[in-house]
């Protein structure tokens, strides 16, 4: 039986970043990639072990918080969710959880995600003059009929958050699971990325509100992707379950040194420490429910 997650997250909520009037001191945060318990080549127990190593590594740093960019488990099986719930309290810093396509594929699993992790599927918070907008990219980009009202509501919410941040003179950082694009902004639709029918709308908002930093997962690779005009960077990190490049398991560290996000935000990729398995995966992920109507 799964344990209630209310108590686990409730303790973190007490120390979560509060709304601030503006930037007054440098701060740091981290980006966790796909934790995805149940996806690793060496079994779910080792996925859980590496999640624990990530917690230990995060705890040694002076991060104000972390953002986990989706795919918390691979199959939503009870034992995977239980393993996540058992391991999550090892993080002593606030960790904001986002859903990925392995977490949500229909309304029932959306409701399950909210219930299992005691979080909203999308949210925002302000910290030191920065607005962090955390999106559910599954519902944002899906065209499934059952998601229709959720999709419309999230787009409206997203636009309202951007406008509110602009009005408050806050710098904006956006995080979600899927990549907006991987190579070029007008590339063809692909499994990893926003479909073209919504990509243009998303990128227009990103540029309109001067968003310079986007945090994503999903790709199981670690790299930075740049806008054609260099106006923003997409930070992709593989996480702790599997990787399909030569960059291994790791975490993105971010340093915020000032109130201008175009020049005062720096990122460093740091390998997961004390790791015993660094074998690159071949091929592509499969077995995930489709979130698109064809």
TrEMBL record:
Residues 27-221 form the Calcineurin-like phosphoesterase domain. It comes from Aspergillus felis. Residues 1-21 form the signal peptide. Gene3D superfamilies: 3.60.21.10. InterPro entries: Calcineurin-like_PHP, Metallo-depent_PP-like, STPP_CPPED1. Keywords: Signal. It holds the Pfam family Metallophos. This is Calcineurin-like phosphoesterase domain-containing protein. One of its GO terms (molecular function) is hydrolase activity. It comes from the Eukaryota.
């Amino acid at each position: 039986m799964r344990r209630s997650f209310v108590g686990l997250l409730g303790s973190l909520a007490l120390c979560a970043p509060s709304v601030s009037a503006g930037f007054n001191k440098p701060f740091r945060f981290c980006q966790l990639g796909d934790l995805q318990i149940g996806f690793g080549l060496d079994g779910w127990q080792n996925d859980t072990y590496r999640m624990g190593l990530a917690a230990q590594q995060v705890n040694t740093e002076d991060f104000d918080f972390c953002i986990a960019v989706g795919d918390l488990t691979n199959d939503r099986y009870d034992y995977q969710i239980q393993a996540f719930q058992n391991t999550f309290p090892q993080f002593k810093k606030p960790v904001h959880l986002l859903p990925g396509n392995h977490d949500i594929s229909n309304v029932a699993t959306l409701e399950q995600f909210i219930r299992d992790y005691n979080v909203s599927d999308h949210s925002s918070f302000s910290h030191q003059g920065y607005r962090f907008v955390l999106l559910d990219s599954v519902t944002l980009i899906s065209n499934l009929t059952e998601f229709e009202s959720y999709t419309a509501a999230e787009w409206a919410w997203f636009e309202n958050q951007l406008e509110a941040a602009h009005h408050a003179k806050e710098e904006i950082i956006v995080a979600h699971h899927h990549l907006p694009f991987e190579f070029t902004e007008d590339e063809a639709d692909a499994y990893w990325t926003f479909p073209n029918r919504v990509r243009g709308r998303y990128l227009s908002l990103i540029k309109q509100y001067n968003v310079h930093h986007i945090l994503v997962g999903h790709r199981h690779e670690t790299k930075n992707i740049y806008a054609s005009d260099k106006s923003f960077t997409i930070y992709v990190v593989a996480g702790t379950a599997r990787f399909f490049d030569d960059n291994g398991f790791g975490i993105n560290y971010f340093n915020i040194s000032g109130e201008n996000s175009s020049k005062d935000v720096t990122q460093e990729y740091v390998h997961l420490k004390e790791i015993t398995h660094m074998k690159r995966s071949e091929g592509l992920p499969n077995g995930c429910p489709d979130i698109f109507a064809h």
